[in-house]
Amino acid sequence: MSRLTLKSAKAEALEQLQTLWPCIETTFRDMAHKQLAWRGDVHVDRTGAEARLLNAVFVAEEDREVDEDGEVSYYGMTDGDMIWIERDLHYEQMIGTLIHEALHDCVFLVRPTRAVVRRGLSCEFEHSVMERLPVLGI
Ligand SMILES: [Zn+2]
Hints:
The chain is α+β, with helices and mostly antiparallel strands. It has helices spanning 3-35, 46-54, 91-103, 123-130; strands spanning 42-44, 57-58, 76-78, 83-85, 107-110, 118-120.
């Protein structure tokens, strides 16, 4: 896939993310309250999710991880600021992966009385929320 393709996948993923945002935010909030029994505030970081998505780059050839069959081990990864995405994805997979990675590190439990005000959540929790969203392939 070319950089041009990544650019249009980003635009499409961003549009889907923005359209779905009210649902994304409600689902994260509900799940934090139900699954984690959290009673406080939940911060869902839309600005960070959008910035991450727009910062996505292809994973460098030397950083690709493949299994014994030569299949890539993951489609994408994020460190909370950047997204690295596999080059050899179908266009729809690319869009789904961008949304998936953008939704990592975007939900925080707000604890105003503690030294660390916002606590991030596990990727298992984030995945359980993503499974409930009406988006295919994320
Ligand atoms: Zn994930």
